[in-house]
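haha ok so turns out i had the wrong file open the whole time. this is the CORRECT one, sorry everyone. sequence first:
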Amino acid sequence: MPRRVVALGRSCLECRRRKVKCDRSLPCAYCVRTKIQCTCPHPKPDKNVDHVDRDLVARSFPFRLAPSPPLGSIHPPSAVIAFIWQTYLDVVDPVIKVFHVPTVQRQVLSVIQRRSNLDAPTECLMFAIYYSTVVTMSGVECRSELHEGKTVLLRRYRTGVEHALGQANFLRSLDMTVLQAFVLYLICGRRDENGPDVSMLVGLAIGTAMRMGLHCDGASLGLSPFEVEMRRRLWWQIYTLDVRMAEDHSSEPSILESTFNTELPSNVGDAGLNPDMSKLPQVQPGRTEMTFTLVRMMFSERFCNNNSYPVLSEAHKCKVIDQFKEYIEKQYLSDCDKDVSIDFITLASTRLILVTLKLAVCRPQKGRIQGKSRRANYLSACEGVLRHAQTLRRYEKGERWLWLFQTYVEWDALAYLLLSLCMVPSEEPSDAAWNDPDIYRDRRWIHVELRSQALTVRDRMRTTRQMPQGTQPDPSWVLVNAAATAAAHSVTEDVPSSTAELPGAGTICEWSAALFGQYWEMAEPRQGPSASWL
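then structure:
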């Protein structure tokens, strides 16, 4: 009988998922009886440590740069503000619903017409709108529309956001508008390589949100329906950002499932909301301007590493994914029109996430003998992931929203597909056509450690087999090269290509050491049946 230890008074994840009483030992009696792995949630951080951490962050906080210069001089002219606001409505708001556009539009129009002096919260929000809009624009667009380089504009508006937050006393502020500005700054700042340290600052957003009580659903606090909805939107944007940062750094989210009861926002567009409403409108299934954001929030809630999902078996995970897909398709996606650009992006991105989740579930495990059919299925799944990604990124009508996906590169699928192209069994000659000359001179491949092995195999195939000159490239190479191209798209025009790094979870060394190391370890030649898959 395994030694059981006390789990510090917290129920295990499986008992929480099944809503059964847990004896709070490790392993608990229920998990021992049902013969499943017992996993306890991470302990809550010590309050004193949190206080010390907050003081340390406060002393090094970039928004406490003092004294702040007058910000009026770095606001753009009225005509530029109008252009930026319209671009924000077209490019940012459809995929990041943080605030109520009609309410904010009245403030923006007041700024454009210079009718009154800006209060600190509104100034924070204005600079966050300037900054987030420029992040989404290309260098060419910045020069043609705003008549300045993108790097210059980003630096100016980044400085404006930080100083405005400092003047609003962000660390102690409980103002919703200030927090909305900060969250918008962090979400879009992930796409700015000189932007904020989101991994550090997201904790401040979480702490501020909790001090404001956003983790408690506003309906239970007797707040107005409009305020309830705005609080839900903001809380779930923070929650989703927390999950994204945890994924980027292979860590656990900071927000525990048990620490909040805030419901997901309603699938209601801005036109259906107003500050004077006495009740929320009846929510109908189908596509609204909130659908894209809502579906992303639902993914974060359902599949993050901090809920009960990780303790499920492989078969159960696949079932959960299939059930979720069926629900999403029926509730939201069935009414999307592929001829409408944002609907196409919603459909394509949702299906890409679903196939990526399935890929993660079916990933080959170290030490497990992999049959040929399983290897073939996994390889096919990798190609499917890259194919979905290619469909999304090649949709020209939706190009304005692709900035949101720049930090998402399907490394797992790319690595495994490259590995399969490198490992050509001598007893199974390949008919692949290795005739894509751009591979040799494409700087993107410098960043991929499997490049040299892949090219060695390619050269060997060309030497040993006479390939017709007009043979089409192998589809696998087309997919792999497209994935590398997608990685390079996040490099801004103002950054020399020789110093640019691919986006993703940390630096190239960080992700490659873990990801490629895992696959190479699995592919290491062994004696016995498992060696046949190389």
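Confidence is low (pLDDT under 50) at residues 1-8, 425-447, 487-534.
again sry for the mixup
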